[in-house]
Write a structure and sequence with these properties.
- With about 180 residues, this protein is α+β, with helices and mostly antiparallel strands.
- It has helices at about 10-20, 40-50, 65-70, 90-100, 120-130, 155-160; strands spanning about 80-85, 110-115, 135-140, 145-150, 170-175.
- The longest helix has 15 residues, at about 90-100.
- The mean pLDDT is about 90.
């Protein structure tokens, strides 16, 4: 087993590519959902594709799709934002840009991952930028401590403000066009 993560991805990708070019078989396994979705495995796969090295998939759990399927939010169109930036200004710009899609036929359910250390602050920022949106927060899906909460952002902020958040969250929200 070779650890492959954000901090060593360049060095390890080169080593893994060498193994593959020598005819060895490699499996990319993740303990946090589908490999390559919002993790550095994507860069390894991209390099393999560029070099003509075949890549096969074995379908498995994906936090994005699992969360979407239980969110109660529309599933016909969604936009996955990965992890939002850590800096508030950059995060605010992304959230403000979400407003531009609301009045179009492309109006999606928005999905992103968030750290337990930033979740409450990010939810408060969503409230400040977008108002009281319909939201769903999913944690530990398909695991023993699975948690899914739904409701208005105000309701969810009241529920979680004093709770200790453990593990990353998949956050989903839907903006509704203003009624005229």
């Amino acid at each position: 087993m070779i650890p492959f993560h954000e901090k060593n991805k360049e060095e390890q990708a080169a080593n893994i590519i060498k193994c593959l070019q020598q005819g060895k078989k490699v499996a990319l396994v993740s303990n946090a959902g589908t490999p390559t979705i919002a993790d550095p495995g994507f860069k390894l796969v991209r390099e393999c594709v560029h070099l003509g090295i075949p890549v096969l998939t074995i379908p498995g759990p994906s936090a994005i799709i699992a969360a979407l399927s239980v969110s109660g939010l529309p599933t016909d169109k969604f936009l996955f934002l990965g992890f939002l930036p850590k800096k508030e200004g950059k995060k605010r710009k992304i959230l403000a840009a979400a407003k531009d899609l609301v009045a179009t036929p492309l109006s999606p359910t928005f999905i992103f991952y968030e750290s337990p250390f930033r979740l409450l602050k990010t939810l408060k920022l969503i409230k400040a930028v977008l108002g009281d949106v319909e939201i769903s927060i999913c944690q530990e899906l398909t695991k023993v401590h699975e948690t899914v909460i739904h409701g208005s952002l105000d309701e969810i902020l009241r529920q979680i403000k004093s709770k200790k958040i453990k593990g990353e969250s998949t956050v989903l929200f839907k903006l509704v066009p203003a009624q005229s």
